Amino acid sequence: MIRFHHVTYRHASRHHAAPPPGAKGRKGASRSMPRPVLDGIDFTLPQGSFHWLTGPSGAGKSSLLRLAHLETLPDSGVVEILGVDVARATRRQRAQLRQRIGFIPQDLRLLPELDVLDNVALPLRLAGARDSSTGAEVQAILDWLGLADKARNLPDELSGGERQRVAIARALVTRPAVLLADEPTNALAESQSWQLVEALQALSRSGTTVIVATHNEALLRAAPFPRIALRNGRLDTPSPFTDPTGDNRGDMT
Questions:
Q1: Residues of the chain with CATH 3.40.50.300
Q2: Distance between CA 55 and CA 76 in Å, rounded?
Q3: What gap in Å lies between CA 101 and CA 44, rounded to an integer?
Q4: DSSP secondary structure string, 91-152?
Q5: CA triplet 158, 161, 163: central angle to 5 degrees?
Q6: By percentage, how much of the chain surpasses pLDDT 70?
């Protein structure tokens, strides 16, 4: 389950620089706080639900995903992931929780010195799995994504679409309880985009909570699952699209 309750977030708001010694402002003037990137966000997503995350550029989509991935903390409100209030959790607890979250970022974050196989296997190794037990799992996902012949290539030797698929493989290889994806189909061919969406929907049916940020209107029309719609950092009017099965599996409040 993912729950945001009255969540407000400002970029770098926890790291405002103090004014230099002796600096004086105008009498009665106060430093203005930056405008919230996210303001008063409330929603609850049940475990195993699939939601699109939509909104224009600058609406706060990437910031919402960063909060859900525990990369930062809210300024106010509660972010609860898999039953854990992340602001109250210790660093160790947050680190353990992140191992249960798969993330496909826009900037991919592949390690340039590691080949494809080692980039994909990295989350398993960080979780303590032995190479002898990870090889088959990694090879299977590389085969499925058409990357088997690229296993020993470095990221710089791949096309943009191939690097995107490596990032997808790395996020899926741990069979996460939560999967977050930030524009994952940007560099993919249409057939690969559909393959990915079908895989994410299959993950959802098996119990993984999935949030996919996208601008791809064709995908939104063809796969009309519920949306978390943002505009200017706030929840927008809920979309009329519904799950074709009649089960939205989400509660937008």
A1: 1-6+37-83+176-253
A2: 22
A3: 17
A4: HHHHHHHHTTEEEE-TT----TTS-HHHHHHHHHHHTT--HHHHHHHHHHHHHHTT-GGGTT
A5: 50
A6: 85
CATH T-level assignment (fold) for domain 1-6+37-83+176-253: Rossmann fold (3.40.50)
Secondary structure of residue 229 in the 3-state scheme: strand
| pLDDT digit string, tens, across residues 202-219 | 889 999 999 999 998 888
pLDDT of residue 240: 41
H helices present in the chain, as ranges: 61-68, 91-98, 116-126, 131-144, 160-172, 190-205, 217-222
Task: Identify the three-state secondary structure at position 10.
Answer: coil
Cα–Cα distance measured from residue 227 to residue 65, given in angstroms and rounded to the nearest whole number: 14
Distance CA 173, CA 79 (A): 25
11, 37 in Cβ contact below 8 A? yes
- How far, in Å, are 119, 123, 138, 140, 230 from residue 172 at the CA level? 12, 10, 10, 11, 26
Q: Is 174 helix (H, G, I), strand (E, B) or coil?
A: coil
Q: Are 235 and 252 in contact (CB under 8 A)?
A: yes
**Burial (0-12, 13-18, 19+ Cβ within 10 Å), 60:** buried
Residue 178: partners with Cβ closer than 8 Å, 6 or more residues away: 2, 68, 81, 82, 100, 101, 102, 208, 209, 210, 211
Tell me the pLDDT tens digit for each residue of 96-147: 999 999 999 988 999 999 999 999 999 999 888 887 778 888 999 999 888 9
